[in-house]
Structures are given as C-alpha cells and as structure tokens.
C-alpha cells in the first residue's frame, strides 16, 4: 500500500509524483484518495510548480501522520520498537532525538524568502495540511511582529482609512500602553 | 530607492492572503504588536478590538507570570513588578529571560517578611512605616487589587511586630498578631471599606512552644474541616500543627484535609486594553 503512487498536477500543468502515505498528510488529498478518484492525476489549480515540490517534501517528512511529533521519523528506523514494552528511558531518549531532528529539519525547510512563505501558506490552507499551515503562520507572525503600521500597510496592501487626527490619537494610546510596559 | 522594488513585490504577496489567514497570523502576535497595529486601518482596528479576537489571542499565550514585591535597603528603593518568564513579548525563545514591569507602589511603606495573602482577588502584605523621630512604628496592610493593579493601604489595628502574618479566614483578611512569646491575637477585617477590625480570637501557644522548644512554627492558613483550624508549619521538623479555634486546642493530625497552594495568575492580554 505504501508504494502506491499518486500524481499531482500543478497550476502550470506540471506533474509530480508522491507516495500515497505521504499524500495522506493532506486532508484534502486524503479525502480524494479515500473517495476513490485515483484514476489518473489530481489537478491542483491553486498550487504552482515552484511550490508543489516544497509541499511534497513536507508531506514526505510527515507522511501518514497528522502533525504529532510522536510518530514522526518512525519510518524505517526501528519498526520493532512498538512491540517492546515500557522501555521508558530509552524511548524518551529516542523521542528527544526525534524531536530535535525534526526541529532541525523544520529550520532548514523553512529557510526561504517571503514570496515562498505566503504561497506555501496558501497551499497548506488549500490542501489542509495543518502542521505546515501552523509552521508558515508562526513564521509570518514572527516576521511582522516588530514592524511599524506603515510597513504592515505596505505588506498587506492596505490603505489607512483613518484621518490624520484619528491616527494621532491612536498613536497616543499606543504610547501610553508602551509607557506602562516600559520594562518589557 | 533600491528598497522600492522589494517593497512592491512584498506588497503583492501578502495582500493575496484571504482574511482568514490574516486572522491566523494576527492571533499569533504578541499584545504589544497588536496594540501598535490597531491603527493600520479601521478593519484591523475592529478586528483587534473584538472581544472574540482577544479571547482567541489569549488562548495562544502561555507564559508563566509572577508578581513580586521587592525592597532593597541600600539605597532604599521599592519595586513591585510583574515578572514574566517565557513570554513571547520578550523576543527570543524566552526560556530563561524575565521581564519587570514596575508598578506604582507606595514607596514609604516597608514590607514585612511574611508572604502576601490573596483574599478575593486582592493581595495583602504586612507593611509598616518607620518614623525617624519616634521609636514606635505604624503598622499597615498594603493591598493590591490584582485586576486593576491599584495599591492602597489600611491601618493595622495594632502596632506591627516582626511576627505578623496575614491570613485568610472565611473570605476575610485576618491578622495574626503575636502579643507576647506565647500569646497571639487574631484580628479579622470584617469591613474593608470602613477599615473596621475585630479581635476574634486570642490563642495561647504555651503547650506547643514547650513541645517545639528549639523550633519555631508559623501559621500558613486557616481552613474549615469542619471546625476552623489554623494550620501551622513547624520549620525544620517539616511538620504541620493544627489549632482548633472552636476547642482552643492543638491537634496532631487531620485526616481528609486537602491542602493546595494558592497562586495569583496574571496573563498579558488584550482584554484589559
């Protein structure tokens, strides 16, 4: 079953291959697979060919798992492990190694520019890959947290609809708040 | 001008995000950023001001907070602050960094060494003022409303000693005030507004003092089980002693008594803005 291949077609008509187990990391793909529509290729009109390989890479890493770190990286390394009972200390160590390894992987995986970040977020949203959506949203939040309102408007293409007086007032409120938290 | 191009391309990308994803991002932001972003647009103002949004944001925050009152003697300074561990506001992973936010405190009051007690959302410390020209000192209870972070003081019914303790009894503040080595008065603040105290109990510690000759013990709580009991902790022996306020006798043990520690938790959230 794990060797079943699925074909995904990007918005710009390029076809990519993915293992069924990996594809199941996406709720959307899982539903399509379980719905029995496997003949041929699954078209993904919202995901372009420069983003799709990135999505597939994530799914491969998290294949057959819905984001809980427990099962991650279990594949192939020690499948007998589940039969062994109560080796807690050893299991803890292995768990820690797994989590560390996954963190390192995520760090490398998430090393890309903003353009990719937002496209990947959209793809994760569309394909319902919760783990990937969380990762990208966290990263976006960490990127914008220190910005000024002007930079935010630029970033999200928003025009301020406050009058200059209103804006002045808002800044005063914010300053007050800042003073109160001056020791942050 | 070199920036302009990157700005333009940035503008294009994030603006493609549907409202639901923008919300997902906003909800992950620290309060400090959100307050700043209220003026981005009326839409954002409405979103961030929405109580439901504040609720959702609060769910995301999992910092450890503590409230610490501290005074130093050389030079004399007073600081009461909210101490924050692992707060996302602080940047970094915040595992070990802490932050002080100093609250206005009534600086003339010195804190006594007993721990504060929380009664009905108000923290109470024993404090006193030293008068230079006088030998006696005036005792006060310093109150801090945890929600509003406001301080006030009320006068203690008796001059302070170093063995003062504040306790809670049936929802009221109770002052444990030693009058001699083996005699203690319990004062209950029955009307906090009028600052009216009443001496409710007078306790003799003689029998216990003898038994614990080389140790000292101090009150940690008043509970009802079902008769009112003062629980004392005997230092060093790590032993609990119970004083039954109904019978006026010390008791060795109480079965079925459930003790839990009390914590006042403060979380930084939009709800108070």
TrEMBL record, chain A:
GO terms for biological process: jasmonic acid mediated signaling pathway; protein ubiquitination; ubiquitin-dependent protein catabolic process. Pfam families: Skp1 (PF01466), Skp1_POZ (PF03931). Residues 69-88 are annotated as: Disordered. Residues 130-170 form the SKP1 component dimerisation domain. Involved in ubiquitination and subsequent proteasomal degradation of target proteins. Together with CUL1, RBX1 and a F-box protein, it forms a SCF E3 ubiquitin ligase complex. The functional specificity of this complex depends on the type of F-box protein. In the SCF complex, it serves as an adapter that links the F-box protein to CUL1. Belongs to the SKP1 family. Part of a SCF (SKP1-cullin-F-box) protein ligase complex. This is SKP1-like protein.
UniProtKB/TrEMBL annotation, chain B:
SUPFAM superfamilies: F-box domain. CDD domains: F-box_AtFBW1-like. InterPro entries: F-box-assoc_dom_typ3, F-box-assoc_interact_dom, F-box-like_dom_sf, F-box_dom. Pfam families: F-box, FBA_3. Residues 11-61 form the F-box domain. This is F-box domain-containing protein.
